[in-house]
Amino acid sequence: VPLLGHFFVVTVGDIVTMGIDFDHRHVRKAKRTSPASEDPYIRLLVKLYRFLARRTNSPFNKVVLKRLFLARSKKQPLSVSKIARQMAGTPDKTAVVIGTVTDDIRMLDLPKLSICALRITEGARARVLKAGGEVLTVDQLALRAPTGKNTVLLQGPRKAREAQKHFGAAGTRGGGVKPFVRSKGRKFEKARGRRSSRGFKN
After folding, report:
1. Rounded CA gap, 133 and 62, in Å?
2. What are 62-73's pLDDT values in tens digits?
């Protein structure tokens, strides 16, 4: 089969078919199809929600499955005060967090909440139960609401990490990117991006 540029010709008897020789060097899907974690509990939850996402017509199960695949930096923690604020209008529904739920000592009176989470801190669990609420695991939720009925899916702020502030080129106009400078002052790097002597000029 002689190559002709990006095309190749296949001859079978008297039939000549032509195909395209695709370049596969840069073909890569950077999307997780399974979790990187070796945690057996996460692996079992993935099995369960993979089945539910396939066999039910519910977008909720597809989203939960996708969030179970995420890296820990993408599963940001959420405090009980934020959950209480989000659930103020829907007291009879269950808040679902595929991540960690933490306590917030600044909130003095916690309302009655129904929370389902991958992980919840001891302080947060004690406060939720003391207020007359309930704490569910993700597999318990699958038995109670296999299609995600009467649930509210919440997640923590993904862009709140310090590392996110440095993403991009510092000094570009309208960028708002934080430079890696020890502190602000006369002795430290100034005018980055505006002079060639200070990093770069654009």
Report:
1. 27
2. 999 999 999 999
